[in-house]
Amino acid sequence: MNTFHYRNHALYGEDLPLQEIAERYGTPCYVYSEAALRERYHSFSTALGGNTQVCYAVKANSNLSILRLFAEMGAGFDIVSAGELERVLRAGGDAGKIVFSGVGKSSVEIRAALNAAISCLNVESAAELWRIADIAADMGKRAPVALRVNPDVDPGTHHYIATGLKESKFGIPMEQARDLYLQAAQHPALELKGIACHIGSQLLDLTPLGEAAARVRALYDELAADGIALQHLDLGGGVGICYHDETPPNPADYAWTLEQALQGLEVRRVVELGRALVGNAGVLLTRVEYLKDNGSKQFCVVDAAMNDLLRPALYGAWHDILPLHQSAEATQPMDIVGPVCESGDFLAKDRPLAAKAGDLLAVMSAGAYGFAMSSNYNSRPRPPEVLIGGHQHRLIRRRERLDEQWALEENPGR
Ligand SMILES: *Cc1c(COP(=O)(O)O)cnc(C)c1O
User: Fold this and answer.
1) Which residue range(s) make up the domain with 123?
2) What is the pLDDT of residues 279-304, one digit of tens each?
3) Looking at residue 378, which CATH number applies to its domain?
4) Does 384 sit in the ligand 1 pocket, CB within 6 Å?
């Protein structure tokens, strides 16, 4: 699908020249394509079939309008905080399709989840399991839980986003999981719903995903033999996307890999996809402020920075940089950097560009972990978010005003 593309040398999002968006809403500005969001959700849910609930991992992009769009398409949600729970409920999400992940759920968050009657809490330690049991007992409820196991497979991704290795803080070691299930089964305030796992993010190779699913399946079979009948297997997320020249798994191959690992098993499945649903559906528009030549290097200083899009600074991540207008002029390699006072504040390095001051650029594949990781560092207001569909555009979050940054602070001398 060709959501962002050139027509007569101008970069379009669907049927809109992106320059119109930049002029109307200013820069920096996030732009998301509704057609791309719908297409991605539809492809995965269709490929995986009716026995699989696709849960959108809210942390990738938690804008209410995007949550609502997925909710209307039938998505469930994978949340990691009480804030995300509240967002999903406000966006019309079905609590009965919410799974709650994360290693550090607070008592307040556990209560909120039980009050909302979510589908399942994915438990990450024995200590957390017993805390959930105590809280549920206190509330006179049964807590629906799955243990998030750590299948100890190497997903072959950046070590900051590998979560299924032995040394990772996530999940419960496979060897301990069975014992814990047997103990949990005795507790009247716990309802054992399933098994969960999630091995990492931006996974390009399906083999580890299949391996993890097979290990989860083996545990399911073992527990069934112990008399513990579970209702679902949550196989996590992490399906990668193309940022540069990667070949990510397509939905059909992904579905086939899971099917192979779970062959013959009728039990319901859950997947938790974030990046694969939203990553390529968004771009960050930015304007060139200055060109700067320090003798050995050319810099293109733009008005977006690491506070708007952290991934390059945090992971050294690659994002394509495209001019909104293709020019015939000769390109030269430049570092595309923001105004923030950190040498780590770059969006891209050594890219051939023919940019000049005032030009508009698009930072591609910025729909996932873009706005969601943005901050006010350097007291910069966070950028607006715009949703486009066909010829239409709609502001789904306005640019922050400066005074909103200190609205919660005391200013004693005043
Ligand atoms: C982050 C996360 C996801 C989503 O990861 P993506 O790489 O965006 O698909 C799914 N499940 C859990 C538990 C997560 O922490």
Assistant:
1) 94-273
2) 999 999 999 999 999 999 999 999 99
3) 2.40.37.10
4) no
